[in-house]
Write a structure and sequence with these properties.
It is a single chain. The chain has 170 residues and is an alpha/beta fold. The chain has a domain at 11-110 and 153-169: Rossmann fold. Helix content is 52%, strand content 16%. It has 8 helices and 5 strands. It has helices at residues 20-36, 44-47, 54-63, 83-99, 112-116, 120-133, 138-151, 162-169; strands spanning 11-16, 41-42, 65-73, 102-108, 155-158. Helix 1 (20-36) links the parallel strand 1 and strand 2.
């Protein structure tokens, strides 16, 4: 469902990511830096309320955000294995196109071409999704297209420099 461009935004930033390695390290620093700057940020562990239906809450938060930051990580290879992450990604790319949502990417210890071209762990994850959903699944096709589109956007490539990136925001 499209969101009106004059809709009141509730969040400045929506953070999309997968994995405890990112949540406990890079993401916690990024969230703290954004919060310190007074930037109201949606991250599931902070904003989801108990008893709230997760999928609709995530989709609504994306629609109600000005910016989405997607963190692709080498260690969290499961981004493309996660139905939740792929659905978030689809919604983010849809809102980018329809509502002008600004999308920023962080490639943390992963090359953009791995995401864009479906290489290595991202290829294995999509192969697995196809196996589970059927080779001709329209959903898997849309997920692949969203990964390719996102991977084609300019972003920050970070290896062990994430502290400098977060300090830059602070």
């Amino acid at each position: 469902m499209a969101v009106s461009s004059n809709m009141k935004r509730n969040y400045h930033v929506f953070l999309s990511f997968r994995g405890t390695d990112v949540r406990q390290g890079f993401l916690s620093h990024l969230y703290a830096a954004l919060d310190h700057k007074g930037i109201y940020t949606f991250v599931d562990s902070e904003e989801l309320r108990k008893g709230e239906e997760i999928s609709s809450a995530l989709m609504r938060a994306i629609e109600e955000s000005d910016v989405a930051i997607i963190v692709f990580s080498k260690k969290s290879k499961k981004y493309a294995s996660s139905w939740w992450c792929l659905e978030e990604l689809l919604k983010i790319m849809e809102c980018k196109e329809i509502n002008g949502l600004m999308v920023f990417l962080v490639f943390y210890k992963v090359e953009p071409r791995e995401v864009r071209e479906g290489r290595e762990s991202y290829k294995r994850a999509m192969d697995s999704q196809e196996y589970m959903s059927g080779k001709n699944s329209g959903k898997v096709k849309r997920w692949k297209e969203a990964l390719s589109e996102a991977g084609s956007l300019s972003g920050w490539e970070l290896n062990d420099r994430f502290r400098f990136f977060v300090m830059f925001l602070a």
